[in-house]
Design goal:
- The chain has about 625 residues and is an alpha/beta fold.
- The protein folds into four domains: about 80 residues, Signal recognition particle alu RNA binding heterodimer, srp9/1; about 190 residues, P-loop containing nucleotide triphosphate hydrolases (Rossmann fold, 3-Layer(aba) Sandwich), CATH 3.40.50; about 70 residues, Helicase, Ruva Protein, domain 3, CATH 1.10.8.60; about 190 residues, Up-down Bundle (Methane Monooxygenase Hydroxylase, Chain G, domain 1), CATH 1.20.58.
- Helix content is about 50%, strand content about 10%.
- The protein is built from 23 helices and 14 strands.
- The strands form three sheets. It has a six-stranded mixed beta sheet with strand order 6-8-9-10-7-11, sandwiched between helices. The chain has a five-stranded mixed beta sheet with strand order 1-4-3-2-5, with helices on one face. A three-stranded antiparallel beta sheet has the order 13-12-14.
- Helix 1 packs antiparallel against helix 5, helix 13 packs across helix 15 and helix 18 packs across helix 20.
- It is elongated, with a radius of gyration of 40 Å.
- The two termini are about 65 Å apart.
- The C terminus is likely disordered.
- Bound molecules: adenosine-5'-diphosphate and zinc ion.
- The site of zinc ion (ZN) has 5 residues, from helix 17.
Length: about 625
């Protein structure tokens, strides 16, 4: 913001400076002013016949003495000290004898009008407007430089800076994996390279491609690579930038963007977060809705308005395909859809390989192992992981980035950075117990994700973390898996109660996650025998705000009550199961907690060691 303000400020200061200069210039035209004297002194000099001439300008009199006149008593005796001219003010009271006196003493009298000339009047009355215009002008220029269009920039050309085409240097080689998507997009690359050939054959080339996928999976990267491969101009904007404070700006921006892109065709327009303008009409809430609809309509009409000879392809990305307006998908608009999934482990390995080119990597590192250990991570996460590892290596003055660095970086990305909080002995013990509960439940139940690591070093927002990683990428979740997940989530709290006979607030997040999971099982996935195979609009996230809101209920009050009952029954059942499990294996639980307190971090192998050795448990028991 301070960046935005300094330009107008400088403008205002400049204007003030010039105005001042201007006034002192016009004020100065009355001519030289001499020694300032009082009016009575002036009358005295007049009587003494020492005034040669006088000029009236309003109530200011200026004039010349006949002789050099000392102004101060101190200067009186000194020869040659004094002034030739004078200035004085006429008192407010009239001096009727003045004119007569002046005539008697043969003073030459001149008068200058105090009314300013027509030009002066004009300039002075226009000045405020000039100032406002100048400030406006500077503000516009300043805001445009800021990129997003800013407050005033929006009125002008929707922040023209955005629409400078970018020459992209990257190609498909820098996009790891995504073979199918690349294959599909090659057709577009060919078209952009040789549009004439396509037009001659009369083929219809898709003008709009929609990329669906979670954030960070490389949609922007892919779009840029298409531009890079084809060697065409690339215009990129986020749809949320279309919509700003002022109504009517969005549609204008869309028009500008398309006009600019057409001018430098062949080109690609990339619209990120299309759902910001493209969500179904009528799904909005409160204000700003009309604005979005206008913007959407403009977008639709621009896409319809393409003719055969305009080699512009629009690529848009969203992670909310479900909320998009159907009108966007019609033929001739975004009729080509590509789903960008989270990468599987092979693609993850390829992505790691691409990003490892930028660092000095220990040749012994097996990227395949890291790839297998990072299910669910997106390309952006993996890039971040490599970056963190490189930072760690640099901090440790290492020659190379090693497997160790990568492992630490993975922990940081998955569990958050380590925090330096001093925990009291008791807090440490509670945390160890709590995490031991999660870990043991996860370890004992069949079909759960293996425990990768458990720690009582505070990380991210948690005081301790039990990290489970699936063996392989999961695409669906069976009910038994979800039930076990609930048991693991409640294991922490149950362990606290079992061993300490008390509960702490540390389990709040577990409860929240567990309740949300149970809600989804009951209301969306039809996993409750009591409710049956039906799905309700409950537990869903809001179509475009990405959060839960009080939604219009599509079910009766009675059903709502039954859903509540069922959700708490399921969570309750999971807690009971956790309690039985941990009670039956109490020695192992205690052994785990003790080892955690001692060692602070245990990996999967160490956990197995501890819970398979009844000797340790027996020792601790006695
Ligand atoms: P999205 O647009 O889907 O949110 P981005 O394209 O902005 O994701 O991806 C963010 C970053 O993640 C990219 O700049 C790139 O460095 C990295 N990335 C994502 N997917 C890949 C991939 N398949 N190959 C290489 N890098 C990738
Ligand atoms: Zn917990």
């Amino acid at each position: 913001m301070s960046q935005n303000l300094w330009r107008p400020l400088v403008a205002v200061l400049l204007v003030i400076f010039f105005v001042n200069a201007f006034y002192s210039f016009t004020g100065g035209e009355a001519g030289e002013t001499g020694g300032a004297i009082s009016y009575s002194r002036f009358k005295k000099e007049l009587t003494a016949d020492n005034i040669k001439n006088v000029t009236f300008k309003g109530s200011v009199f200026t004039g010349e003495f006949r002789a050099v006149t000392p102004l101060t008593p101190a200067a009186e005796g000194q020869k040659g000290r004094g002034v030739k001219t004078f200035t004085t003010m006429k008192p407010a009271i009239d001096d009727p004898g003045l004119m007569g006196d002046l005539e008697n003493h043969k003073v030459e009298v001149t008068a200058i009008t105090t009314e300013s000339s027509f030009l002066n009047t004009l300039v002075i009355s226009l000045l405020p407007w000039l100032i406002i215009l100048a400030v406006w002008f500077f503000a516009l220029r300043g805001m445009k430089g800021q990129g997003a269009g800013g407050m005033l920039g929006g009125f002008a050309k929707s922040g023209a800076r955005e629409y400078v085409p970018e020459k992209v240097g990257i190609t498909f080689a820098q996009v790891a994996g995504m073979e199918e998507a690349k294959q599909e997009l090659r057709e577009i690359v060919d078209y952009l390279k040789e549009p004439k050939r396509f037009q001659r054959l009369g083929g219809k080339v898709p003008k709009g491609v929609l990329l669906f996928g979670p954030p960070g999976t490389g949609k922007t990267l892919l779009a840029r690579a298409v531009a890079g491969e084809a060697g065409v101009s690339f215009f990129s904007i986020s749809a949320s930038q279309f919509i700003e404070m002022f109504v009517g700006v969005g549609a204008g921006r869309v028009r500008d963007l398309f006009a600019t892109a057409k001018k430098s065709s062949p080109s690609i327009i990339f619209i990120d977060e299309l759902d910001a303008v493209g969500r179904s009409r009528g799904a909005g809430m409160g204000g700003g809705n009309d604005e979005r609809e206008q913007t959407l309509n403009q977008l639709l009409s621009e896409m319809d308005g393409f003719d055969q000879h305009e080699e512009v392809v629009v690529i848009a990305a969203t992670n909310r395909p479900d909320v998009l307006d159907q009108a966007l998908m019609r033929p001739g608009r975004f009729d080509r859809h590509l789903v960008i999934e989270r990468p599987d482990w092979r693609d993850r390995e390829a992505i790691l390989r691409v990003h490892c080119q930028k660092i000095v990597l220990d040749p012994h590192v097996e990227l395949g192992v890291i790839a297998r250990g990072t299910p669910g991570m997106t390309g952006a996460d993996l890039e971040n992981l490599i970056n963190e590892a490189a930072i760690l290596a640099a901090r440790g003055n290492a020659q190379q980035v090693t497997g160790d660095h990568l492992e630490q970086a993975k922990d940081k990305v998955l569990m958050g950075g380590e925090r330096k909080v001093a925990l009291s002995e008791l807090e440490k013990q509670i945390t160890a117990l709590h995490e031991a509960g999660h870990t043991l439940a996860a370890r004992l139940l069949p079909g759960t994700d293996p425990v990768h690591k458990v720690t009582i070093i505070p990380r991210g927002r948690a005081l301790g973390v039990t990290q489970q990683l699936p063996d392989d990428d999961r695409h669906y979740y069976p009910r038994s898996y979800l039930m076990n997940r609930l048991v693991v989530l409640l294991g922490g709290r149950v362990a606290e109660r079992l061993l300490l006979g008390d509960l702490s607030t540390g389990a709040q997040n577990d409860l929240k996650v567990a309740t949300e999971l149970a809600e989804k099982m009951v209301c969306q996935w039809g996993m409750s025998d009591v409710i049956g195979p039906v799905t309700f609009s409950r537990g869903e996230e809001h179509p475009f705000l990405g959060m839960k809101l009080a939604q219009e209920k599509s079910f009766s009050e009675e059903m709502a009550w039954r859903l509540d009952q069922e959700i708490s029954r399921i969570v309750g059942a999971a807690e009971k199961q956790a309690e039985e499990l941990l009670t039956a294996n109490r020695p192992k639980l205690e052994a785990l907690a003790a080892a955690l307190t001692e060692e602070e971090t245990l990996d999967g192998k160490r956990v197995d060691e501890i819970i398979k050795l009844p000797v340790i448990a027996a020792d601790k028991n006695q």
